[in-house]
Amino acid sequence: MLLEKIISISGKPGLFKLVSQLRNGFIIEDVTSKKKISIGNSSQVSLLDNIAMFTFDKEVPLFEVFENIAKNYEYKEAIAHKSTDAELKEFMTASLPNYDTERVYASDIKKLAQWYNILHKAGYITPESFVKAESETLDPAQEGEEVTLTDKEAPKKVAPKSEKPVAPKAKASSGAKAATKSTHRKMG
Fold this sequence. Notes:
There is one protein chain. The chain is an alpha+beta fold and 188 residues long. Among the domains are: 6-47, SH3 type barrels, CATH 2.30.30; 49-136, Arc Repressor Mutant, subunit A (Orthogonal Bundle), CATH 1.10.10. Helices cover 34% and strands 16% of the residues. It has a 5-stranded antiparallel β-sheet, with no helix packed on it. Helix 2 packs across helix 3.
């Protein structure tokens, strides 16, 4: 699932996909209605890719929580976000068993269920949408698999090295110059 371009906007219901950047804002698309609108730079935007949920020992990326929900609900729609608090807590315990009950509020669980269902309705929740993340977590050296780098992961181009090593252009201290000169005298 590609959450890197999916955002939540404070004060606007639903989830949106970043389409392009403008001089003073962004063009976004509602993930369910596909309606495009523009927003200004002053809008409070949260990238779903940057959101994590608290457990007692670490923070779990939202992507992983969505994957757990998808598996629990067999990639179908989950519990409604307007369910009772008891039902929502049960949903959360099944989705993230070790979640921090002191720092994850009922409103967070409601939002999680709502976002999951929005993404499901928009076609983002499928068994294939989680395959990429699982393959990225494998260590190719251990698995003996060939890896193809994406543009993000591709190494930066470096100028070819010359045959002779070139000395750095950093200034040497006067003590270093003296030591170099005395070494050359002894050798010559």
